[in-house]
């Protein structure tokens, strides 16, 4: 009995004490321009996985991805039209868009960001959110 | 024997929450412990602002960004599997991507359809003198053109004109010029990585420029 009670206590303490911070991979991009609002999980794009297979040039020169997280305003409409992710995720070069949860795999409410960036790691906040930001 | 075990189980189940709550209540918050010896500010905590993650290259379900409740999260490849055998660095993904490419450990495509297309590589080093005491910067075009296309940087990020590109580390840290990639995807700007760019030592006779005020009023 003591053993089971102890295990229960330890697991409770572990849940309370363990840090909840994100330890995602450097350069993982979270895109949440429209996902939360549409009731989908935000998209997580793993840069590391893609750079093993393609050079930067393929997406950032050929496909026109801007160097800014969330800056391309990607929508499913554009993807099924063959733009951005849809240039490869079409069932030809890579798996197709019916695998929703492979990209839409982020924790709901995670803001758009590039994970582990210098700006995120700076001790003092570098900017304030604009109050009158147009959406 | 079976009845005894069952009884013990029931007791354990019913007592557990009570015990847990008691222990929770018995453990005072950190501040009150310190209050016994007099008030101590939490501002004095060792390494208050140094957040260091000890966990590296975690699988998606444990990385704090992917949702473990999503079935597909568990299908995604864990980075550690992919990085096996690749050269390492102490920062970023902890993978030396340029070295991996140079040693042919990785062969990422330069064209999304045709695997045989070779990148347009330019081998030209640009030296930029630095005002400060740190070594001068050598920008190697070679590793950059192995990954990127000229149009990724020119003419928008780096203006093709002498003296037109004014740079400083503050801007780079905030994501301008080199900081468009370095500090986001390419190797980050950390104390360990300074010398990757600041790689050309100053000439032997070089002395740092002295502040005007210290020339006027030298310290005695």
What does it look like?
The complex is a heterodimer of chains A (135) and B (220). Chain A has 6 helices and 3 strands; from the N terminus they run αββααααβα. Chain A has one domain: Cytochrome C3 (Alpha-Beta Complex), CATH 3.90.10.10. Chain A has helices at residues 2-17, 47-53, 56-62, 76-80, 100-103, 118-121, and strands spanning 29-31, 43-45, 113-114. Chain A has a 3-stranded antiparallel beta sheet, with no helix packed on it. The radius of gyration of chain A is 19 Å and the shape is globular. The longest helix of chain B is centred in the first third of the chain and has 25 residues, at 2-26. In chain B, a hairpin with a 7-residue loop joins strand 1 and strand 2 (136-140). Chain B is mainly alpha-helical. Chain B has helices spanning 2-26, 30-35, 79-83, 97-102, 141-147, 150-153, 169-173, 194-197, 212-216, and strands at residues 125-128, 136-140, 198-200. The chains are: A mainly alpha (135), B mainly alpha (220). Chains A and B meet through helix 1, helix 2, helix 3, helix 5 and helix 6 of A and helix 1 and helix 3 of B.
Which structural class do you get from the secondary structure elements of chain A? mainly alpha
CATH secondary-structure class of the domain at 119-200 in chain B = Alpha Beta
What would you report as the Rg of chain A, rounded to the nearest angstrom?
Answer: 19 Å
Low-confidence residue ranges of chain A: 10-20
Overall geometry of chain B comes to: flat
Q: Look at the structure and give the mean pLDDT of chain A.
A: 85
H-E string of chain A: HEEHHHHEH
Run of helices and strands of chain B: HHHHEEHHHHEH
- Give the biggest beta sheet of chain B: 3 strands, antiparallel
Looking at the structure, the CATH topology of the domain at 119-200 in chain B is Cytochrome C3
The poorly predicted ranges of chain B are 11-26
Helix content of chain A: 25-40%
Question: How would you characterize the largest beta sheet of chain A?
Answer: 3 strands, antiparallel
